[in-house]
Model the fold of this input.
Amino acid sequence: MAEEKKDIKPPAMASTTVSGLSNDSKVWAALCYVFPILMFILVYVMEDKKKDKFVLFHAWQSMLAALAGWIVGMVLAVVTLGIGGLCFPLLWLVLLYFAYQAYLGQKFLLPVVGEYAEKQMK
Done:
């Protein structure tokens, strides 16, 4: 009894997820929250990223959220004579959480800046 050996190949990895987003789009969207201002500029310089609505939305939202957080942190730091400066590491942790959510392919709206980012997409 000779057993036939079948050449079993692993299935090819799909480059898109169930929601239809490519891994590239999700990584770029996540990086927008880690480096908000830099990634915002890069998204607008690169033509293919400018056309990707998912990346463009997260670029706008992350930049606006980072600026708003920075302004609030500065005001708190001045009012509390420097103690409010402890808000900046907390802001970065919050932005890292948003980066994780963007990497999962989720589109979420932050209260004020998310609505403004949505308007920029139209």
Remarks:
- The chain has one domain: 23-121.
- Helices lie at 23-34, 36-45, 47-51, 53-79, 87-103, 113-121.
- The chain is about 65% helix and 0% strand.
- Confidence is low (pLDDT under 50) at residues 9-18.
